[in-house]
Design brief:
The protein is an alpha+beta fold. The chain contains twelve helices and 42 strands. Keywords: Membrane, Transmembrane, Transmembrane helix.
Length: 721
């Protein structure tokens, strides 16, 4: 307890300033707002300032309080600059405190740490007393947010000695959870600043509101007749304006849909329509209903078989994308090191994480150093090629960490050849003087087998498309320039064989056969932008390779984009897959050309050249006697073809041109077997656009939907109730 005489510890200057305040004109500020310069506290301080400065006092309060010559309370002083470290308050702050009738302290847990707020309180108390200090709770509890100095009051005892006694400060609650009573709390602050009773001010505020309502009612009654004369004309004008607005919104929604922004397009289309068939507040415009039906894609569109489905948007530039072939989820890695998981059926975000393997360092190049790879519905591999290295394997369905390997430098991870649904995968890693391949069982959290190959010097550019692995026989392959490294996982041995005159670009395997594509892209050209390449199938004999057949052709590296402007797109020769359709086929792509070869004989069973380079290609609908192929081309064309029929992109009804320049594309199928395309574009590097293939057949019968049915589908799609 502190004992003070009524005039002790008070400077002469402060006494003179207090006495001057009682003989001069009213102070210049209605309130001085003291707060910690944090975003939340500053927002509350601004809210209080606006409320005080914009409030007009009821007439009775103005007439009885002589201090106020205007219905306005006056200006507030709120210092917007953080004060530098100093032992004393700046002159401007001291003058503002002296000229303020009230001190309002914005209280939060961090306020207690501010020496400036405490000094402002102490000086105001010496100038004007503690009765004119108001606490405004912005966050936290009163116990942790209100300064101890405000929880006491100096009260003189019988002998005139001031004693510091516990006291409840005058306070208002503006915490976020107090939104429902926010107006009442602001009125409580205004009453304190005005120096009148809160209950009195609230009653007069209610009376003023009733008076306004009464006056408004009289005015409305007087104008009813006049309004009635023009009611019909006004109704017509209003309806015409709503119709025009609905047509404009419908056009805007279709434009958003064309840009792949399906969710935004649905929300815009909903604004253009009445809320139900019984809603008469907005006329039903056929263009708006047709726009919503098109955006929802409930019926296949013969002119647009690939339709915008959803999009992923991340905080940083997208580094890698992968998805479960079974279509249950998709994962996106951005340059901040964040992995975002999405529901592949509807595009909703299901979770994010920042694995420790994606640590950002000064020398990190995320697009070069990091990768993610979907192995199965229950297996996602994440790796860091450089820096601290490391591999983390999780189950995206349960978020369980299956493996966490710190002492390894991975190059890539891939599913096993000729197996689907398995959580086993191949891992390619490197050391100072070696490369190694491992067979990993993710569910058992175990390395099943591995083999290592010493190398004198690691290649300048590691081509990860040349790594493949199979379980029976247990072998893995990786290309070092013109040579193939064979990892015999069963006996943990490795050997290297030169099998090509050109650099190997891509490798796949099946049993004891290996298919590879080779080309010298940098230094080999005939001068007209045609580069030689070869497709070869060789048999692994155990002590080397025996060539079964080789096919040679040329391909173009640079093609025209959709705007007919030459753009480089190095679609290097690639073995896409080895698939079984009656016989085993090698599916290969090079530049603008697509091929299918017999695995054993090398016979060309299908060949087609497109108008632009192939960005991505994926076999689909593979059965015993037929198959199809989905493609993304560098002119931003999506297509589905069947090599069993004479089709081209100019006659194929499965073609759609999307309005983007492609950086990359990933093709697959969703959980229901529908084809999907994930597109990474040059205009928005933090977005992935998903398109869904919905073919239109001659036998297709368009289904009709009522407005209420369309609205229900739309609200479900965007998560509205």
């Amino acid at each position: 307890m502190t004992l003070l005489t009524s005039n002790s510890n008070m400077s002469l200057i402060i006494l003179l300033m207090r006495n001057a305040a009682t003989h001069t004109s009213p102070p210049g500020y209605a309130a001085f707002i003291s707060y910690r310069h944090l975003p939340r506290d500053a927002e509350v301080a601004c809210e209080v300032q606006r409320a005080i400065e914009e409030y007009r006092l009821p007439r009775h309060v103005v007439q009885t309080r002589q201090a106020f010559r205007s219905p306005k309370l006056g200006k507030c002083f709120r210092d917007e600059d953080e004060l530098a470290a100093s032992h004393s308050l700046p002159d401007s702050i001291q003058e503002a405190l002296a000229a303020s009738r009230t001190l309002i302290v914005i209280c939060s847990p961090e306020t207690r740490e501010s020496s400036w707020v405490r000094r402002e309180i102490e000086m105001f108390e010496q100038l004007h007393g503690r009765e004119r200090i108001i606490c405004v709770l912005a966050a936290g509890s009163p116990e942790e947010s209100i300064l101890p100095i405000l929880k006491t009051r100096l009260i003189p005892d019988a002998s005139g000695v001031l004693r510091e006694m516990p006291a409840e400060p005058l306070a208002a609650d503006l915490r976020p959870e107090a939104k429902a009573k926010r107006k009442a709390e602001l009125l409580r602050i205004i009453a304190a600043v005005a120096g009148c009773s809160y209950d009195d001010l609230r009653q007069r505020e209610r009376a003023r509101k009733r008076k306004r309502i009464a006056l408004a009612s009289v005015a409305a009654a007087l104008t009813i007749a006049a309004v009635g004369v023009f009611a019909f004309q006004f109704h017509q004008t209003s309806e015409a304006a709503l119709i025009a607005e609905s047509k404009s919104l419908a056009a805007q929604a279709l434009d958003q849909y064309a840009q792949g922004e399906t969710a935004q397009a649905i929300e815009t289309a909903l604004q253009a329509l009445p809320s139900s068939e019984s809603d008469t507040s907005r006329p039903l415009v056929p263009e708006a209903q047709a726009a919503l039906e098109k955006i929802l894609a409930l019926n296949p569109d013969p002119e647009q078989p690939w339709t915008p489905f959803y999009l992923f948007e991340t905080d940083g530039e997208i580094v890698d994308v992968t998805y479960s072939q079974e279509g249950t989820w998709a994962a996106v890695l951005d340059a901040t090191g964040t992995v975002s998981l999405y529901n592949a059926d509807n595009g909703t975000l299901t979770g994010t994480a920042t694995p420790h393997v994606f640590e950002l360092r000064d020398d990190t190049v995320p697009a070069r150093d990091w990768f993610i790879k979907a192995i199965s519905p229950s297996c996602l591999v994440m790796g860091n090629v450089t820096g601290p290295g490391g591999v983390v394997v999780i189950d995206p369905l349960t978020n369980e960490v299956l493996l966490d390997l710190d002492d390894i430098y991975p190059l890539t991870a891939i599913p096993l050849e000729n197996e689907t649904g398995s959580s086993d995968f191949g891992l390619l890693a490197y050391g100072t003087r070696s490369i190694a391949a491992f067979l990993v069982d993710a569910q058992a959290k175990n390395l099943l087998a591995g083999a290592e190959m010493p190398v004198d010097q690691f290649p300048r550019m590691a081509n990860l498309d040349t790594f493949c692995i199979q379980k029976a026989p247990a072998r893995a392959y990786y290309a070092l320039d013109t040579a193939l490294v064979t990892f015999n996982l069963a006996d943990e041995t490795a050997r290297q064989d030169t099998v090509s005159d050109a650099t190997i670009q891509s490798v796949h395997c099946k049993d004891d056969l290996v298919a590879f594509a080779a080309a010298n892209i940098e230094n080999s050209s005939d001068g007209i932008n045609n580069y030689p390449f070869s497709i070869t199938v060789a048999r692994n004999t155990g002590d080397g390779f025996e060539t079964l057949w080789a096919y040679e052709d040329t391909f173009a590296v640079t093609v025209s984009t959709r705007n007919d402007t030459p753009q480089p797109f190095a679609s290097v020769p690639k073995i896409v897959d080895i698939l079984h359709c009656g016989e085993d086929l090698v599916l290969a792509a090079a530049g603008k050309k697509l091929y299918a070869f017999s695995l054993t004989t090398g016979e060309v069973v299908y060949e087609q050249e497109f108008a632009a380079s192939i960005v991505a290609v994926q076999p689909c609908f593979v059965e015993e006697d037929r198959y199809a192929i989905s493609l993304a081309l560098s002119d931003a064309t999506l297509n589905v073809i069947s090599p069993l029929f004479d089709v081209t992109t100019s006659t194929d009804s499965s073609t759609t041109a999307v309005p983007f320049t492609l950086n990359g594309a990933w093709l697959g199928a969703d959980n229901y077997g529908n084809l999907v395309a994930y597109l990474h574009t040059a205009d928005r590097l933090n977005r992935i656009y998903c398109y869904l293939f919905r073919p239109f057949y001659d036998s297709t019968v368009a289904e009709e939907f009522t407005l209420d049915e369309l609205l229900a589908y739309a609200r479900q799609a965007v998560g509205q109730s």
